[in-house]
Amino acid sequence: MITIINWVREIENLAHDVYLRSAEFFRDDEKLSAFLNHIAEDEAWHYHVMSSALEYCRNRPVGVPEIAPAVTIDSETDDGIKSAFRQISDKLSAETLTKEFLINQILLTEYSEWNDMFQYVVNTLKKTKREFLYAATRIQNHKKFIEVFLENIPHMNGAAANFKTLPSIWEEKILIIEDDESLAQLIQAILEKEGKIDIASNGAEGLQKIKENYYKLIISDFDMPEMDGIVCYTHAAERYPNIHERFLFFTGNLSPEIRSFLNQNHLTFLKKPEHIKKIREHALQILLKPDRKMII
Description:
- The chain folds into 2 domains: 2-164, Ferritin, CATH 1.20.1260; 172-288, 3-Layer(aba) Sandwich (Rossmann fold).
- The protein contains 12 helices and 7 strands.
- Helix 8 (181-191) links the parallel strand 2 and strand 3 (195-200).
- The protein is elongated and about 65 Å long.
- It has helices spanning 2-25, 30-58, 75-93, 99-110, 113-125, 131-151, 157-164, 181-191, 203-212, 229-239, 256-264, 276-288, and strands at 71-72, 172-177, 195-200, 217-220, 247-251, 268-271, 274-275.
- By secondary structure, it is α/β, with parallel strands linked by helices.
- The strands form 2 sheets. It has a 5-stranded parallel beta sheet with strand order 3-2-4-5-6. The protein has a two-stranded parallel sheet with strand order 1-7.
- The longest helix is centred in the N-terminal third of the chain and has 29 residues, at 30-58.
């Protein structure tokens, strides 16, 4: 978790610097400059939150186990977000930055994995430290502030409207079966553009949803209360023989029993922790497969 927190802190600091410089660059546009100063202050606060998270993880109370994240930051995700801010910085230095380009880059970064990971950290830590409850809601207010600003600026509301109405690549239904709520929410954020997502907190709940809906992709853990992943899958496979093509197991437990189960049933899996890029790639591979006739 410390590696993720340090990465988010780095991006928050970069965003704060770029937004402040942009506010000064567009100082003649009072509304835009005020908006940029506001979100720069937000990023400074986000940096403070991540610094508190870092201190908490390094000096966690006795009896609180070390938090092992299930997701890591891959180089493509890292480069994509940093590149967007570098492009703004380069245009500021060259005095060629336009308002349209700036807004597009803000949308690109603010709705990227950067803030998904911020949310993941605070959602994970709020379970053991209440001060992170407020941070979890404030990041949503930050995004809303950006949307409201763009909607009320005549020459910019098209950018907000276009962004908010971007169609999903896939309209398929996706089910996440995961007892770790913060991880389930992170996976949901990673895949939210790929389809409509339902979440089940255990195998029993997941199996009931599978009986009630057709999911093109089912992402499941193994170790869960009430009903584990093996039992859930076994019951689902009895009802839908081809369902193995739609399952993606995401687990930190690859015991000999689990490996044997995966091999015998020809199931796709990822081991925690895994890169965001890999999670999305494996999910899309399943979503892209042609549907077989559904057997009920």
